[in-house]
Amino acid sequence: MAxxxxxxxxxxxxxxxxxxxxxxxxxxxNVRLTQDWNQLGxxxxxxxxxxxxCMYLELGQVELTGKVAIELGAGTGLVGIVAALxxxxxxxxxxxxxxxxxxxxxxxxxxxxxxxxxxxxSELTWGQGLERxxxxxxxxxxxxxxxxxxxxxxxxxxTMEHLSSESSVVLLACKIRYExxxxxxxxxxxxxxxxxxxxxxxxxxxxxxxxKLPARRDL
Length: 219
Prior knowledge:
It catalyses: L-lysyl-[protein] + 3 S-adenosyl-L-methionine = N(6),N(6),N(6)-trimethyl-L-lysyl-[protein] + 3 S-adenosyl-L-homocysteine + 3 H(+). This protein is of the alpha/beta class.
């Protein structure tokens, strides 16, 4: 979501993020993603939350076959790409406009030609232009490491509410770094039932499943 270029003077622990590509094996496919930290910053590298989300999706705990999915703040597009490879009928992979060309190139590189028609790369700034997306039109809403900028929390929540219905599943993979992260979960629980469904201890990544609460009907 945040397209923030970073200086080249980084700690060695982050060196993998500065590599020009990252490779994975998911859904019986070798997935090779271009990374571009210098130009697009945090939006253009693969973070652990995305990897853990893909591992969770491979476990089959959430049915993807035949489903309509959307990824928010996709960055390199890893999660959306893997969702498509695992059988989602339609996947919309979104981020802000400056990242779209980069994102589309990763999709083209990793989605088989006969499946490309089922994957769409689309501009989405949270809370803006939501009328371009069908209300409650997605079975699965995916987000990996998108809970980190407090100023975006209201618009992110608004976007999740717009995209999901009471039968949709929202999956969020994230670290709980600061008090603001738990504050977002509290905000989320005002509109969704929320359960932690997976924890990767090695990477300190939590996955939360959220389902929209029924609309209030005043008597």
